[in-house]
C-alpha cells in the first residue's frame, strides 16, 4: 500500500471515529421542542470533512502522543459551532443557498424560521457540550486549562472572531471589498475557528505559551489558504463534487480573493501560504506525520 493510500485509509478511519464521538453528544429528539432538535441533528449529520475536530485532536496528539479525554467534548463543540455558521450562511438573508453537502440546506428543509433557531441552538449547545470537559478531571491544572480552552472557543467564535468576520462580510456584501478588509474577513470568518481548534488542542495538551503562539500563527495560515482554495473551487469546481452550488460568489456579486487577485495568483498564494504553514509546524516539538499530510490535503482539496 502506498503512503497516499495508507494516509487515505487512516483519514477515513479517524473521520469515522470523530463522527461517532460527535454523535454521542447530539440531543435526543423528544419533547415539545422536538423540531429544533431534529433540525440541529439534521445539520450536523449532513456530514463534512470534520476538519476542525480533527485538527484539534491531532494537535493534542502532537504534544501528548494521545487523545486526552478532556479534548473530546471540545471536538464535538467546535463542529457544532462550525455547523451553526453554515446553517446561518445558507439563509435567504445571507447567501440564499438551498443546498449544502449534497442535501437540502437546513432552512430549505425546515423553513427559514427554524433555520435561524437551529443555528442559534447549535451555538449555545456547543458551549454546553464543551463544559462537559470539566467532568473529565479533578486535577487543578487540567481544570484551569479547560477553563482557558472555553475562553478561547468563546473569543474565536464571537465578535472578535468568526461573528466579527461575518459581520464585515455582510456589511460589504454586493459591493467592492478592499484587500485589507477581505483579509480581515478571511482571518476571522474562516481562520478564527481553525485557530480555536488547533489552539485548544495545544492548550489542553499542555503546550508551552511560546508553542501556543506558533500554533496560532500556523492555524491562521491554514485558515487563509483554506479560504482562498474555497474561492478557487467556487470558480473551478463542480456542484456534484463539492456538494453545493458553484459560482454562488459571482451570483451574489461577492468580492473574493480570486476576483481581487485573479485565479492564477490565488493558486500561487495557496502554495506559498501552505509552505509557510508547514515551516511553522516544523518549529513545534514532537512529530505528527498524519497532521502534516492532513494540512497538505486540506489546503489542496478539490471539494
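Sequence proposed for the structure above (303 residues):
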Amino acid at each position: 500500500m502506498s503512503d497516499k493510500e495508507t494516509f487515505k485509509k487512516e483519514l477515513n478511519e479517524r473521520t469515522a471515529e470523530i463522527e461517532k464521538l460527535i454523535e454521542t453528544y447530539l440531543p435526543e429528539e423528544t419533547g415539545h421542542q422536538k423540531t429544533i432538535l431534529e433540525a440541529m441533528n439534521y445539520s450536523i449529520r449532513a456530514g463534512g470533512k470534520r476538519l476542525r475536530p480533527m485538527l484539534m485532536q491531532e494537535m493534542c496528539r502532537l504534544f501528548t502522543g494521545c487523545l486526552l479525554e478532556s479534548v473530546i467534548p471540545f471536538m464535538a463543540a467546535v463542529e457544532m459551532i462550525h455547523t451553526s455558521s453554515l446553517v446561518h450562511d445558507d439563509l435567504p438573508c445571507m447567501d440564499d443557498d438551498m443546498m449544502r453537502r449534497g442535501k437540502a440546506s437546513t432552512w430549505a428543509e425546515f423553513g427559514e424560521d427554524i433555520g435561524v433557531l437551529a443555528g442559534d441552538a447549535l451555538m449555545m449547545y456547543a458551549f454546553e457540550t464543551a463544559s462537559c470537559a470539566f467532568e473529565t478531571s479533578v486535577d487543578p491544572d487540567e481544570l484551569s486549562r479547560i477553563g482557558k480552552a472555553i475562553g478561547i472557543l468563546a473569543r474565536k467564535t464571537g465578535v472578535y472572531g468568526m461573528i466579527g468576520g461575518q459581520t464585515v462580510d455582510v456589511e460589504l456584501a454586493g459591493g467592492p471589498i478592499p484587500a485589507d478588509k477581505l483579509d480581515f474577513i478571511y482571518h476571522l470568518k474562516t481562520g478564527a475557528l481553525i485557530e480555536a481548534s488547533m489552539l485548544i488542542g495545544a492548550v489542553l495538551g499542555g503546550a508551552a505559551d511560546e508553542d501556543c503562539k506558533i500554533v496560532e500563527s500556523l492555524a491562521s495560515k491554514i485558515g487563509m489558504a483554506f479560504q482562498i482554495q474555497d474561492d478557487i473551487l467556487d470558480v473551478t469546481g463542480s456542484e456534484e463534487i463539492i456538494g453545493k452550488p458553484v459560482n454562488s460568489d459571482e451570483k451574489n456579486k461577492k468580492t473574493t480573493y480570486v476576483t481581487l487577485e485573479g485565479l492564477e495568483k490565488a493558486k500561487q498564494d495557496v502554495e506559498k501560504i501552505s509552505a509557510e504553514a508547514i515551516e511553522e509546524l516544523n518549529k513545534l516539538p514532537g512529530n505528527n506525520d498524519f497532521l502534516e499530510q492532513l494540512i497538505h490535503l486540506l489546503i489542496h482539496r478539490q471539494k
